[in-house]
């Protein structure tokens, strides 16, 4: 993948993300699809299919790659996006567009079918559009080859296992159905229907209702559709695959404007066999009952079973996806479909024991209920309750109307019993009995699956709940100032605004996000199929000495029936019957133990006491296995266990049984013991009625019990038994507190690391890693030793592991170590030694699991607090791009983490700047710099990364930062000792780019004007005036200063020329005015005063020096001064005081290098202000120079010069006219411009409106000053034609019409010329064309002034024409 540049995200699916990319050293763009490795089989199927295809309407496949966490497909880039996005924007398409799209789809689909490929997943999201609007089929993950379908007999066909229900053909819901060309054509019809209506023909949020509609209902008619299109949809959406349109009919259908060619298609024996099996093909004599043929398929569809399978598969999906499209519905047995694009899996799970356990997010699993320790498992709890409700809807009320959940069935457990004794099953709590207590009564009042179950009790009992984390964060806030000082040792000297309180608040925010609720979520131990795939329970009902009841029958039994039933079981087990008979009864009894209500009844009966005694005394492995299994199931599902069970020495017996020679016995015993220990721990912490010591003593939990569990972690033990032991420790450590500390010993760590490092089973490795993480969380004092001994294999390999659960554990350990001052130094050493650790952590930012992305962000936060060096490393690995992408992440935890990082960057920048300041001080004091010092200067690159990011910039930029950066500009040495000059030069270059980034953000300049004007601008002036500075540096600073001043001077809220002139001319009066102004006006006064002081004292005095420098310094100096004079002409006096006025007119010669647009504009300002006298202008030959420049610009098409030089000419003529009126000029300047009359006239027809307006202004003024000399030519045939053309604006580009100013100036010149007596009559031989234009303007001009002047000119011209 290092051959490609990856750009923005252009699409996202459940398991994949698509980016725009480009192959390095080429201009070829691709769509780069990143797919989670859990979808490897699907990706390989897609690769195999697309690799062999080459068609204009099939998405091109180029290559695929495999990395640690993802599979990458390099595909053709289609700029038009997918059809689904197009339909979301346009909703409906016209039939002409549908025709073209349909043609492309049909051509592509027939090509696939001709090549023996069934597409299986036609839907808008899989149909792409290129830049020409051509459709291309993509997404071949579900496609199948006909050879794979046809090679099996019909009875062994693989089912249509996966699909998008809204586009699935009716037959695919039937048992034994398979995809075919017919089902693809149905899906094609659905897509065409959606193009016309904006939705598929069948759509419902309920899967059951959707499937029912597809099977039984007809789609609604499309209003306004042509008969041809309606008929095509009718034939495509025929519910019977036997009578549905075939390719021969489709290619010749009358809907196509041109007939399509028919390709040779392979046979489909599987489809033919399915049609024959269900009798779908109508005979010639039976066409009248064709509509009845689908009855067989409809009757064969079991929607309840399909829903159950799909729901189960949804719940078993790895926790790496957000099921935003399809979710379990509120109603039992149904699935909610929120999007037509939702895909479901209808493959019934096979117990192959290969499922991967990944509990990184709270998700339901296939064999057990999730125990959420955080109290945030609402979504999963809802599913669990619904499942219980569905499975036992009838069991909540018995035949007599009695609710089972309201029975006080808390049997008295006997300590001794014989074969003749009956099990006690009390219907009500006896007076004075322990079972009539508050806990027992409260528990018994809960219905099945209620929130009082141990699952829910555990949710509130965790030591690591969200509330506990928040409380810990608040407690840590008091010490956060010290922690922050340790992370940022110089931060206190940097800013008074970055107070200890702010640092404490930031650290508290870090702690609150350090752990996610899923970090304390656990799963049951007993019957966890991800630990061990157990065979299905079997028993011989005929061999049972009693009539067996189903679970529901038992729950519906009345008191007497229940007692009698359990008595039969008790007597059979306690009798001297053969072992095989007892095992048979226990196997049956196990089937009754997986319900909460049943478990509550059975575990507190004397049956359990019997089982415990038999487990202790039994010798037969098979019997011990069944006994331990029954006890484990009862403990797992019970929500209340009476104290009497503790007196049976159950824990001691289970502990002793762990030494059994049979590994199968040890497995069952360890699972049961683990479940029991977890139950005891959660109940003790939840109730708080007894101490851990008292509870341990009551249950007989001794150090030997803990040692027995830990002993199973040693090498050589059965791996399944080890997994049960590890799972037990994981669950208990998730609780934290004293129970977790019992297992937090060195032997446990050694055993867990041994399992983690050596096991080849991914589930075992994942559980071991999770257990390590949770144990270190509960016992943070062990963290330093773990890092020192196992840091590399635990972190480096863990972060890069293929299991997301291992990655979560590794990143949790990393974050915990980074957050602990005592562990951070060891981790810093490890980070320095292992170059791959940081890239592995950064790689998680691209993970498909939101939880891992968020935790990776938190890792970066903590790394930045550890040292700015790591922040620089992260920035160099595209941290900014990652964060800007993650800002669009919808996951709340990720959003909180990204916001935390953004907030943290403020303190990090202060710390970086503090280190830079110290190093600059060292350089300037001529002390030898250390390597760390050079690194300090290099860290300024962090600031550059952050201030150039739209996401981070608002958080890090403030007035203080601007001040510090300005100080760096003054402090960085121009030269230094060998070894320092290079780093100083690189630092200066970085600093200038940081300042440039700031100078391009007007919002920051207006927010912090004092910092920019009082610190940055003087610093820039200082560098510019220092001749020892490099010329490139000086120019960079000059350009930056010019840009910043331009923003301030042109912002009316920042600068007022009126106030500035008051300040310049009458400082005392301006000060009084400023003091008496309002608060809002006061800021304007203050900024204006500061800006004027800057201009007078620093900026304008630089101009003479800059004019002497090499290019382009003079150019920017002229631009800067010209801009100042345009805003505030009062600075002309400052220019005069510097004796610069004559210099600018001297630059007007064609040969002078400073003869540029900025100099011309500057001369105009000086001319308007009257800076130079008439004699000085004559002495400088100013008019001749202006005319020469004008003529040169016109003849050589120097477009940028035309408008400013015309404006200068206009200003010069206006100035000389004013002087003539005052008797101070003889008009010599004006006479120079008479020779430019033709030039002015020609430029009036210039295509640039601004140039034409400026030329017309000059022409009008020249005619007004010299009417006798100009009227004759103006009213000549050539002049009149040019005037008529200009008045109409026929030459102008990009405008609706000629500007009124242009027309007014020209009409003024025409009226002046017509009023001249000597030239009126003989000059214009044919005034009709000009007269027509004038009359048109007089009648239709929108501007009243133009209409009036045109009417006046037309009247005069008409009079002249009449006199002729």
Automatic annotation (TrEMBL):
CDD domains documented for this protein: STKc_ULK4
Matches recorded under Gene3D superfamilies: Leucine-rich Repeat Variant, Transferase(Phosphotransferase) domain 1
Each HEAT repeat, start to end: 650-687
Protein's recorded name: Protein kinase domain-containing protein
Ranges where the record places region Disordered: 348-384, 425-459
InterPro entries named in the record: ARM-like, ARM-type_fold, ARM_RUK, HEAT_type_2, HEAT_ULK4_RUNKEL, Kinase-like_dom_sf, Prot_kinase_dom, RUK
Start-end of Acidic residues biased regions: 348-359
Bias (Low complexity) ranges: 440-453
PANTHER family assigned to the protein according to its UniProt record, in alphabetical order: SERINE/THREONINE-KINASE ULK4-LIKE PROTEIN-RELATED, SERINE_THREONINE-PROTEIN KINASE ULK4
Taxonomic placement: Eukaryota, Viridiplantae, Chlorophyta, core chlorophytes, Chlorophyceae
MF-aspect GO terms: ATP binding; microtubule binding; protein kinase activity
Organism: Tetradesmus obliquus (Green alga)
GO biological process, one term: phragmoplast assembly
Ranges where the Protein kinase domain occurs: 4-256
